[in-house]
Design a protein that fits this description.
This protein is an alpha/beta fold. The protein has a domain of about 180 residues: NADP-dependent oxidoreductase domain (TIM Barrel, Alpha-Beta Barrel), CATH 3.20.20. Helix content is about 40%, strand content about 15%. The protein has ten helices and eight strands. Strand 6, helix 6 and strand 7 form a beta-alpha-beta unit. The longest helix has 14 residues. The radius of gyration is 18 Å and the shape is globular.
């Protein structure tokens, strides 16, 4: 199992904005596209991919099952609908979007349904998102060790999630960092600005390079072609030990996303 380290996120992008973003990204060389049922943009992502002319075999497509579709009799049918919208017969990675404790479907039921989707060939790999250490342990108990490819979590220089990340590494589960720029808040950080100036880089490139150097996958989004191109350059930016140590001091438990009813009790 492997999760590509750099992709395009599509959270909050809809309509023509997401079509343009995906097409620009694919033209620039992106090959990983991350979407979700709740983003309500799977059809537009599918359209953009079709119009790009990039062969499906070169792409890595991720989508996420929404909480309304967790029941054993709903998950696979909802995925089939997503595949229709995405104009493909499988995704490369399928995630449970939120633990959603108390929504009426227990973790063993939805994890078993997720595993079934993989057995049916509708997804190559399965994973979770926004899971704590304890919930990840429970998920492993259901589907087996080595089956969970990634836990996609909010992670930025302001929310470094070190304990959870260390656990995931121990389990051989890739960390996928979303909100790596903390809704743009890190772009104004003076420490990151100094490091960026030293490397003749942008602050966004520094934040993304930091996550990549820690072994995480990243999925930044943008509607601007120049930012999409600039973000890609983070892959070539090498931060030194001093840079990494300085960024480690920025931890402030700065969580941006924790919706009631969906979020667990965080580690």
């Amino acid at each position: 199992m492997s999760i590509p380290s750099f992709g395009l996120g599509t959270f909050r992008l809809t309509g023509q904005a997401v079509i343009d973003s995906v097409k620009s990204a694919l033209a620039l060389g992106y090959r990983v596209i991350d979407t979700a049922q709740i983003y309500k943009n799977e059809a537009e992502v599918g359209q953009a991919i079709a119009e790009s002319g990039v062969p499906r075999s070169e792409l890595f497509i991720t989508t996420k099952i929404w909480v309304d579709n967790y029941a054993a009799d709903k998950l696979v049918p909802s995925l089939r609908e997503s595949l229709q919208k995405l104009r493909t017969d499988h995704v490369d990675l399928l995630l449970i979007h939120w633990p959603a404790p108390g929504n009426g479907v227990d973790l063993p039921e939805y994890m078993a349904a997720l595993a079934e989707a993989k057995q049916l060939g509708l997804t190559r790999q399965i994973g979770v998102s926004n899971f704590t250490i304890e919930l990840t342990r429970q998920a492993i108990d259901v589907v087996g060790k080595g089956e969970i490819a990634t836990n996609q979590i909010e992670l930025s220089p302001y929310l470094q999630n070190a304990k959870l990340s260390a656990f995931l590494k121990e389990q051989g589960i890739t960390v996928t960092s979303y909100m790596t720029l903390a809704y743009g808040k890190v772009l104004k950080d003076p420490v990151l600005a100094e490091i960026a100036a030293k490397h003749k880089a942008t602050v966004a490139q520094v934040a993304l390079a930091w996550a990549l150097q820690l072994g995480y996958a990243v999925i930044p989004s943008s509607t601007k072609r120049e930012n999409l191109a600039s973000n890609l350059l983070a892959r070539d930016l090498k931060l030194d030990a001093d840079d990494m140590a300085r960024i480690a001091t920025l931890e402030r438990n700065g969580r941006e996303v924790s919706p009631d009813g969906l979020a667990p009790a965080w580690d």
